[in-house]
Amino acid sequence: MSEGGFLPGRLGLSGARIPHVDRHGLLWLTRGRLYVEDGTLHFTAAESEDLAAGDYAIPYQGLSMILLGPGSTVTHDVLRLLARHGTLLAAIGGGGTKYYTAPPMGQGRSDVARRHATLWANKTQRLDVARRMYAFRFGRVLPHKDIAVLRGIEGGRIKELYRVEASRFGIPWKGRRYNRNNPSAADVPNQAINHAATFVEAAADIAVAATGALPPLGFIHEESSNAFTLDIADLYRGEITVPLAFQAARKVLDDPTLSIERTLRRDAASAFQRHKVIPKMIDRIKDLINADDNGRNT
Fold first, then answer.
1. CA atoms 235, 238, 240, 242: torsion sign
2. Are 266 and 11 contacting, i.e. CB atoms less than 8 angstroms apart?
3. N or C: which end of the chain has fewer CB within 10 A?
4. Is 234 known as a binding-site position?
5. What cofactor does its activity depend on (predicted)?
6. Secondary element (H or E) of residue 168
7. 42 is known to lie in a ligand binding site
8. Residue 197's closest CA among 178, 213, 214, 181?
């Protein structure tokens, strides 16, 4: 990483070359200490792949969300300062593969949430959004207007996707099998799919929180408290989740000493950063809800 990308003594949004410091207002920090000194937010970073060692003043007023990764600590004063200015802080796994917590505060605006609720509450508009979600997966708008039919078509597509990816990686595939009461009893490919889905859902959790959308109000999923998160995660099942799963499964089948969960977490973190998965999710949410991009209103 080039040190020339940093403003001296300051983590500048326009110049700092660190993952996901972009127009979405997300700042990713890892391996360091986040604290407040003289009313200024600081991050003392250890040397890492993402950031050179040093102490950086952070312009939190221009951020929507700070994502604090592994190897980091945070002081009580940080929570107080960020709460006062409406900046979200979330503890995450590497690359956004886990989403542990975030203070329940927003960006000082309710327009995204209100628009989300309006679309969800209207049966016709809710179906329109669901059809747009399926269009994103299929590359075209399907003529069907029955959500059950659309779910059935999607199910067939995913079954074929499993078969194709298994063949591509040379993995014996006996079908999707998952026992919620004993998930570790599944074969390696099915365990890989379970873990990959969990990691992509975590990325979607971050994107939904960053936009201020409403997790319980799903357009395809219905009963879950994070139904909209599941909607967003499913948009990337073919592009990210399934390929990641079978790639990791191949590695573990070749070397049984590897942990499928650890292997997938590492691969997912790398893929999320390489493909800018979370920023893409944020843009997709804004597009679906027709939200304007007004600086901090991410």
1. positive
2. no
3. N
4. yes
5. Mg(2+); Mn(2+)
6. helix 147-168
7. no
8. 178
Question: How is 185-244 classified by DSSP, letter by letter?
Answer: GS-HHHHHHHHHHHHHHHHHHHHHHHHT--TT--SS--SSTTHHHHHHHHTTIIIIIHHH
Extract the tokens encoding 269: 């973190």
Q: What does the alpha-carbon distance between residue 219 and residue 253 come to, in Å, rounded to a whole number? A: 37
Per the model's pLDDT, the better-predicted residue between 159 and 2 turns out to be: 159
Structure tokens at 142: 């399907």
CA-nearest of 289, 272, 286, 283 to 67 is 272
Length of the chain: 298
Q: How far is Cα 168 from Cα 183, in angstroms, rounded to an integer?
A: 25
Average pLDDT in the chain: 85
Query: Is 144 assigned to a binding site?
Result: no
